[in-house]
Amino acid sequence: MPETERFEAPAPPKKYPTAALVSWLIGTVGVTVFFAIGAWQRRWIADDGLIVLRTIKNLFAGNGPVFNAGERVEANTSTAWTYLLAFWGWVTQAQLEYVALWVALVLSVAAIPLAMYGTARLYRARWATGLTLLIPLGSIVYISIPPARDFATSGLENGLVIFWIAALWCLFIAWAQRDPSRTDGRAKAQLLFLAFVAGLAPLIRPEITILGGLVLLVLFLAPFGAPGARTGRIGTAWLMRIAIVVVAAALPVGYQIFRMGYYAILVPNPAIAKDASGSKWHQGFIYLGNLFGPYTLLLPVILAVLVGLIVWAGRTGHGRHEVAERGDILERAGAVALRKKGRWTAFSGALQRPSTVVATILAAGLILGLYWLRQGGDFMHGRVLLAPLFILLLPVMVVPATIPADGRNRVGRIQLAGAAFTILAAAGTVWWGTAIHGRVLSEAPMDITRDGIVDERRFYVANMANENPITAKDYLEYPRMRAMMETIDELKNTGGVMFGSFDYDNWYVAQLRKDGLRPDQQGKTTVYFLNLGMTGMNAPLNVRVVDQMGLAYPLAAHTERLTDGRIGHDKNLPAEWVVAESGGVGAGPGLPGWIEPKEVRDANVALTCPQTQARFASYEDTWSFARFRHNLRQSYGFNGYRIARQPEYEILRCGLTPPPDPKAPR
What we know:
The chain is mainly alpha-helical. The chain is about 55% helix and about 5% strand. The chain has 30 helices and six strands. The longest helix has 30 residues, at about 235-260.
């Protein structure tokens, strides 16, 4: 029989030794319970977490997945989070704020033991003679930092993100440890399920596609079946590659086509509002320091890196275990086949191994972290770096410490020293976590410093004197909110454009014009305010709610990013645009005194720019197949379309004729 046909299936991995199993179980339960308690103590729903709930309310009301009825705008970054909450809201018929709270909490807490299980599985082929313990390390680092517990609830998609990462990690590890020669139906189903989960990445969050894409690349390049076999498996391998692409792409590509035809852009509207492809490296490093500095996070990170290197050194010293346990392709498929197929076969055959999984995960975590540094981070303390940190900690969520049966020889002494350092590093991490777990970013939580970063939870807790703000009604205690509700009630028959006043207790109102209004503008009340979530969830669905940054307002989203603006808030549409676009008066007693009539006149002219009018039509016109097709063609151009912030400059940019000054002599 030719050497290439004597491919033996690898022996199944050893069962977990009792000490390893018990230590993993104790550590996992302990870490998970502490995280659950900490997350529950800090439970809350952020203002941004309320934004998605208004979209769901509109969906349930028959207005579609929109923030404002009649305007097809995708105001939520995570598509999967929107529809997951909608599903559980529909099933339970519970108050949406509590649906978001519990779904986020369950996913966040479940992600920890799931990730620890995946890491334990990573090391199960490395049991040596002696006593092996699995000690929590990276998991302690993650749960100790306050932002991890803050955003375990919050109503934002962080819990979904880390749960998806943990699930992908487990499935990826299982794939790497599977017999590579298997081509039965179960092996195919497991591979395609992994591809499907990885393919969900752009629906979880657009930037997390970095991780899902790298995993899919590895799956695509890896062989399927024993190398060198003569039973037509080359054709099967390529059919599986095609199946991987189809299964991974079906849902995200299908939704992308829907997004382009329905919303008329390529990405969620917040990605345009925050210019997700922009560059603010300096601010990004400030944001990194804002997370690492207050908690001395560099200390446990260094310990985790050192322990990881020790584990890696132990792996290289015991490379024979991986061959014996997995049936490594390079060693067991036969050198003859590899010489015939060349270097590509050698490279491809080496992909289905745990070391490749670890390298892929670490690369994805580093790239994702660099993306957020380039983007400038966020205005919420720590939030967007939690996912990269969680990814980078995956290989050391738990770590093996082996106390050898015989410590008198050289290998035994090295193992003993490694185990001692690992145990001391874990103890030091526990000490660090105990010291910093309650540390706060600032003693003045309501102050926003020059870097624009704020401890979001403490900011709202302090503003509303409520330790656990959850519902939209809780946010009525935020400045201006009760006055907003009173003003909305006063305008229910006339409509108008509302602007928050500077005294926190009143709202300015621009009256609507008597004539020249579109049917959808007549009697419509528009609220123009920064805090989109609390405003949108408290205002009735027939009240239009828009914001300066453009999260739910394309006109603001398509302005240019302010170079020195506060991160995450670096677009600020002047109020004159809103008055003009909403049908407000351009002068006279119906216009608040601080709004310039000339600017309103300029804005009315600037709004007639053909490109801007086309953008309005793309999300305001009645949705039909013709509109769907038109939006598909225009979505790429709309994605990069930008207007000048100042109406007079926009008139020049678009080549329009400025309006005449009514006071000028004729």
